[in-house]
């Protein structure tokens, strides 16, 4: 097996109950991991790869992925991707499992209730206006950095609305990119490498120490004040389990904050970068967006209550999440021996699935490489082929928050600024924790009144 994704074209699918064994994960995924995972779909519902001495299974079928995540989810736990990121997010909701995860989900969900989301929408719009109004026409922006800066401020400002959170906002902008950049590398290398004092490891743990220190200070201050600031942190501190009456410990609150900050900053910032990239490539989409915004909003700012009326904008967001899925790969691990797709898989086996590969499969999405928001006009009610936020009991708890942010940022920026890619720009993708553009330089133009 060579490093080229197309080199696996000579592998021969095996009989039912057996899977093709295609090579070693480091060599298969080293140069083009996203394209490789997409290419593996040609070899059946399940493909086997080596990860050191162990065998890892790549699950390609949406039906089998649905079994792993939803109907038979109790047979699986979080996989290597999550256990290796524990150094970063501790035992937060993205990493936790079992009854503890279920408890944390119950405690966190009220933070995303509609009444809270309405207030978050005002924060989203205000921060978007503050950043985008400062963009000078004629300048070239590193849009990927601007979107991460925006999402860091929005996420932190919804987590901490008091002045105590200002320092946390600055730390988030500096530390989260460092942590997420190193996180995927740590998944793919042996544990012994992650314990060595390499420059990357030192940066990683220094960033974690910085963000934990400032969060500890903010949490302690909130605990002493005992005041509901109307923000996410206040919800977490006041949350009580219905059965036991117990709340979260200080450390657990901090782990949940780090999880929400990492996801809200990096993943949503990446999705917004892709959103504006696709709009610049499709002027007809931009025209229809402007027409809808004019019809719904006239000359007033967007609010949370306007979002259900922005139907075309919502389809543009969904199509971006399909075509440019930030969370391109995820993992699970079997709790016991299981049968999946006619294949016997032993307990403790790692399984990989790729939302990106599913979303690009022409069997599920005709003309899959085309950016077509109107494909969602006739999308099936069964969304098992659309898994940008996962599915089942481990589906991203902040999916509504992320979609709301994308819609409000889109509606706020597109009416005031026109963004265009610089001449000669060539897209390069980076497959870290999120699939993101390496750089995305864009020229700012003022929108005509």
A few lines on this structure:
The protein is an alpha+beta fold and 449 residues long.
What's the SSE blueprint?
Layout: E1 21-24, H1 25-29, H2 33-39, E2 46-51, E3 54-59, H3 62-71, E4 76-78, H4 80-83, H5 86-89, H6 98-108, H7 114-132, E5 140-142, H8 143-159, H9 166-188, H10 191-194, H11 199-225, H12 232-238, H13 250-281, H14 283-297, H15 311-323, E6 330-334, E7 338-340, E8 343-345, E9 350-353, H16 355-359, H17 399-413, E10 417-421, E11 429-431, E12 435-437, E13 441-446
Parallel strand pairs: 1-2, 3-9
Antiparallel strand pairs: 2-3, 4-6, 5-13, 6-9, 7-8, 10-13, 11-12
Helix pairs in contact: 7-8, 7-17, 8-9, 8-13, 9-11, 9-13, 11-13, 13-15, 13-17, 14-15
Task: Please characterize this protein's 3D structure.
By secondary structure, the chain is an alpha+beta fold. The chain has one domain: Orthogonal Bundle (Cytochrome p450), CATH 1.10.630. It is about 50% helix and about 10% strand. It has helices spanning about 25-30, 35-40, 60-70, 80-85, 85-90, 100-110, 115-130, 145-160, 165-190, 190-195, 200-225, 230-240, 250-280, 285-295, 310-325, 355-360, 400-415; strands at about 20-25, 45-50, 55-60, 75-80, 140, 330-335, 340, 345, 350-355, 415-420, 430, 435, 440-445. Strands 1-2-3-9-6-4 form a six-stranded mixed β-sheet. The chain has a three-stranded antiparallel β-sheet with strand order 5-13-10. Strands 7-8 form a two-stranded antiparallel ribbon. Strand 2 and strand 3 (about 55-60) form a beta hairpin. Helix 7 crosses helix 8 (about 145-160), helix 8 (about 145-160) crosses helix 9 and helix 9 (about 165-190) packs across helix 13. The chain is globular and about 65 Å long. The N and C termini lie far apart (about 55 Å). Mean pLDDT is about 85; it is low at about 1-15.
């Amino acid at each position: 097996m060579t490093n080229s994704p197309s080199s696996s074209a000579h592998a021969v699918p095996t009989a039912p109950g057996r899977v093709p064994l295609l090579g070693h994960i480091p060599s298969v995924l080293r140069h083009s991991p996203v394209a490789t995972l997409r290419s593996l779909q040609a070899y059946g519902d399940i493909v086997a790869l080596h990860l050191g001495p162990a065998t890892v299974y790549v699950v390609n079928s949406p039906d089998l992925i649905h079994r792993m995540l939803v109907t038979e989810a109790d047979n699986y736990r979080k996989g290597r991707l999550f256990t290796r990121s524990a150094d970063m997010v501790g035992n937060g909701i993205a990493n936790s499992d079992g009854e503890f995860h279920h408890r944390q989900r119950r405690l966190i969900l009220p933070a995303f209730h509609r009444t809270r989301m309405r207030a978050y929408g005002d924060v989203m719009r205000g921060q978007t206006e503050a950043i985008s109004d400062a963009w000078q026409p004629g300048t070239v922006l590193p849009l990927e950095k601007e979107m991460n800066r925006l999402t860091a401020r929005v996420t932190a400002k919804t987590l901490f609305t008091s002045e105590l959170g200002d320092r946390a906002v600055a730390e988030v902008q500096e530390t989260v990119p460092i942590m997420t950049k190193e996180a995927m590398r740590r998944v793919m290398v042996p544990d012994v490498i992650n314990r060595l004092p390499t420059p990357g490891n030192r940066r990683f743990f220094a960033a974690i120490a910085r963000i934990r220190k400032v969060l500890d200070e903010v949490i302690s201050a909130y605990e002493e004040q005992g005041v509901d600031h109307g923000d996410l942190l206040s919800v977490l501190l006041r949350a009580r389990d219905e059965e036991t009456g117990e709340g979260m410990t200080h450390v657990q609150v901090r782990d949940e904050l780090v999880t929400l900050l990492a996801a809200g900053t990096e993943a949503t910032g990446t999705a917004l970068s892709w959103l504006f990239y696709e709009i610049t490539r499709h002027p007809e989409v931009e025209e229809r967006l402007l027409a809808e915004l004019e019809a719904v909003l006239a000359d007033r700012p967007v609010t949370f209550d306007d979002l259900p009326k922005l139907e075309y904008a919502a389809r543009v967001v969904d199509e971006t999440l399909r075509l440019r899925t930030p969370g391109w790969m995820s993992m699970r691990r079997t709790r016991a021996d299981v049968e999946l797709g006619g294949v016997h898989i032993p307990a403790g086996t790692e399984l990989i699935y790729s939302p990106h590969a599913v979303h690009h499969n022409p069997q599920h999405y005709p003309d899959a490489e085309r950016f077509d928001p109107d494909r969602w006009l006739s999308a099936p009610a069964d969304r098992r082929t659309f898994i940008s936020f996962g599915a089942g009991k481990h589906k991203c708890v902040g999916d509504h928050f992320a979609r709301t942010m994308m819609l409000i940022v889109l509606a706020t920026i597109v009416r005031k600024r026109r963004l265009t890619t610089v001449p000669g720009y060539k897209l390069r993708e980076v497959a870290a924790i999120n699939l993101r553009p390496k750089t995305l330089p864009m020229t700012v133009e003022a929108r005509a009144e």
